[in-house]
Amino acid sequence: MDASTAAGRIARRFAALKDEGRAGLVTFVTAGDPDHETCRALLQALPAAGADLIELGMPFSDPMADGPAIQASDLRALKAGARLTRTLELVRAFRDGDAETPLILMGYYNPIYSYGVDRFLADAGAAGVDGLIVVDLPPEEDAELCLPALKAGINFIRLATPTTDDARLPAVLRNTSGFVYYVAIAGITGTASAEDAVVGPAVARLKRHTDLPVAVGFGIKTPDQAAAIARVADAVVVGSAIVSRIQANLDAENRPQPGLVDDVQGFVRTLAEGVRRARG
Q: Is 74 assigned a catalytic role?
């Protein structure tokens, strides 16, 4: 796959969503949670359930921006043998059956640094990764990964938060590509609920500074909440609620119970229906 294919998949998907007159659904799962094969089946099931884009978490032992659900999923994945090479294996397996759904790796810089930036970008691009969200690299560190990723044809997606003021926004947006990820609540993932009355003005403010689509995540747990955010944003990101659904289908030893994939797929389908009905 050439670099233009990776960079173009996200833009094509948002253009198609705009033509349909609706927001997109972005789903998050942690690579290798609860094990490699179950995660592979989950990834393959997400587009059919209505996921328009997929974020795949890169397991890390100290996920400081994430709440208890995703922290637990990282630990489950690491205990089951997850590592960055296996995350890229999951991407390659997904791409064997799906050439169009954008797939974004999300996580922290340490595993990428340990892997080697140049080697990682080459392997990620070859596997079919479309974008990166690396939550602990600020704009001041763009030379570390952001600029090399853009050069390699991989979108670099930046987070904006309720505390990102107008003075800070230009730096945040300067090298952002693909879309902007707006964090709807202050704090860690999965601990509070996003409110559309607050998110709407925040999205409007972002759009005064950028032409990029704005996806909103953190604190979106139900189809009704997804619908409310879908009325004011270009995409809705759901992570902790999906990861919690995975956890609810594990036994006491964190082994997947029969029906896990079907149950998660059914839950994602309800989220997708909420997003799709949001604008009538």
A: no
